[in-house]
User: What shape does this take?
Amino acid sequence: MNKLIDILDLSVPEINELIAKASDIMANPENYREKCRYKKMATLFFEPSTRTRLSFEAAMYDLGGKVLGFSDAQSSSVSKGESVSDTVRTASIYSDIIVMRHPKEGAPLVASYKSEAPVINAGDGGHNHPTQTLTDLFTIQKEKGRLGNLTVGFCGDLKFGRTVHSLISALSRYSGVRFVLISPNELKLPSYIKDGVLVKNKLEFTETKDLESVMESLDVLYMTRVQRERFFNEEDYLRLKDSYILTPEKLKTAKSDMIILHPLPRVNEIHVSIDDDPRACYFEQVRNGKYIRMALILKMLGIE
Ligand code: NCD
Assistant: This one.
């Protein structure tokens, strides 16, 4: 496999295999400690990251490999005006696999054309984030025991939230998923996902502004941060940033086995008192993210 740009680059059986592999790695980490000996991964982060970069790096170290790269493009030759393609081409000469995050939609795809090594999209602008989706799917499978027959609520910034776009695309291929889209008018799901995925595939979905009115129907609640860095003006951000704040009070009508997910970072959207609620699974997502990325690295490097 020479690139993972969009979650649909992986078939459903391939995703199932990755989930099975991640579970096996989690149960038997010692069997994988040398799998990537002498392999190098380059992490090229043109945009801030905590979990995605650290989980990829931890994944590679736990496979016995090594990591090089940058987490601040200003410290690379990009600050001298080098093109993304030339930077990635260079990194691919020195490494076996590339993980790249960039503020421009499509940049990892363009970079993959020039790369000698497989390229993984670690987030491109407000577009896609396929490895967060693998993390989300792995977490849903572990916590709910299935990926179909679920009512999934997406709440917050559905316009710019790339993790939402990728997870909706992924879940569109499982049967019996009902999508509940909860956002202010200004942050509704873009039409390339709403029409291009939900309407096109005749999937069941509803749109609302009111989280509490749909709470009791949800099996999964996927909270998101309002994406400040994608706004054109600060005023709009300030007006919309606290549209949803999940509190214990608002969870009163939720199912006792609903799970609460969030790709993190959270700003204000989930009150910290919810962290101890057994339904809060966002730090489990953090944990799961390393294992599914280990499985992905092995697959992309063609290592059994
Ligand atoms: C997300 C991202 O970068 O899109 N974070 C992540 O990778 N876990 C979500 C966000 O930044 O809000």
The longest strand covers residues 40-45. The chain has two domains: 3-128+287-301, 130-285. The two ends are 13 Å apart (CA to CA).
